[in-house]
Amino acid sequence: MKKLSWILLILCITLTPDTAFAAKDDLPWWGILLLVSSISTAISVVLVWRNKKLETFTEKAMGFGAWFWFIIFLQVMVYGFYIGIEKYLN
Q: Are 34 and 18 in contact, with CB atoms under 8 Å apart?
């Protein structure tokens, strides 16, 4: 658990400039990609780390991949709804 805390701390420190940059209106496509993939990676690592049913490396890798793409999909859907609503209201 101590290693996980250090990993999350380092991840949060490295993502701080990206999240601060995301507050601006002119976020480029690579900034969005970096932000979404960083969030998905962090959440997937935590979910796989805490799941005691996944024992082998292969199971953990498959679980990570499944969670990663599922969370990416959710973020893309939310972002798409946001863009659609923003264009509809303006």
A: yes
